[in-house]
């Protein structure tokens, strides 16, 4: 893999850290800026909305820009938003910077996915995708806990400064190593979206929704149902992250084989795993094992589906990258909402059952079509 892909992955790591780190910084931000904790939660909602809207929008608006220029512009906006956020004493300004950072983040990831798959052989899109999405999983393992530590000892603003600093090497790498060529047409009205690409995006959103439905509430599942002490929860969350990193890394190679059976079998095991977790959540050993296994399978299946979407949209990679980014974030936004509703109905096992239902739905849809084809949009 070209070294610049790892620099792009570093930028994705910084962006994913920014997206997730507010879960540990919200109370400090609320106290410092004089708002309620629920109001501070708007910062997370604003970021999610910006990600959903920003990916396809910037993919289309930046269609005529060279990819290097688009990557640089979006990363500079992302970096600048964090500098302003670290300096401001106004909650309104901070909220605005979160929207701008999310728009830039979404646009960057959309273009980065297209760029990454364009820098490798035509049959290596899965591995290129895994390098970028590996940055997201590493954020769960390292970035978010590190942000929480910085926030605890040096204040929440230090986490924002850290995200800005981490983004700098990627800026230099993009400037020096990404070819300056146009992105190609990306207008939805002109090229349309093939039915198979649309299905790949739907499957990716369902699997990612299942992942975040349970991951968001993993802490109360482990403490209230399994009975694990609060002090052990960060370690088990990191275990989930380690599993997800392993899943993305391994899946990158298998995705390039275009073998339906691989993703269907892994998806079937993922479905059984969520059911087993819901049934055995009261027991320590199976819960610990399933935290690791479900992290690996969730991200393996999810990243493979996104790789297949990029193959399906290979004639228009920027649009495909933008839609893939939006699909991931639709799942990430909808999953926690569905999980929260399930908790109100059936307690903390509820999100695990909802995750099983979402994966089961994806399997029913995926089993009725050819998942791993290579042809572009029709």
Number of helices: 15
- Roughly what is the average pLDDT, rounded to an integer? 82
Give the N-terminus to C-terminus distance in angstroms: 30 Å
Query: Radius of gyration over alpha carbons?
Result: 20 Å
What level of helicity do the residues show?
over 70%
Which ranges are low-confidence, i.e. pLDDT below 50, for 5 or more consecutive residues? 185-189, 373-378
Number of DSSP strand runs? 0
Taken from the alpha-carbon principal axes, the silhouette is globular
Taking the sheet with the most strands, its summary is: none
Produce the secondary structure layout:
Blueprint: H1 3-33, H2 37-40, H3 42-61, H4 67-87, H5 91-118, H6 125-154, H7 156-177, H8 188-191, H9 195-215, H10 218-226, H11 233-255, H12 260-280, H13 284-312, H14 317-346, H15 350-366
Summarize the structure.
The chain has 15 helices and no strands.
Describe, in plain words, how this protein is organized in 3D.
By secondary structure, the chain is mainly α. 82% of the residues lie in helices and 0% in strands. The chain is built from 15 helices and no strands. The chain has helices at residues 3-33, 37-40, 42-61, 67-87, 91-118, 125-154, 156-177, 188-191, 195-215, 218-226, 233-255, 260-280, 284-312, 317-346, 350-366. α6 (125-154) packs antiparallel against α7 (156-177), α6 (125-154) crosses α13 (284-312) and α12 runs antiparallel to α15. The protein starts with a helix and ends in a 12-residue tail after the last helix.
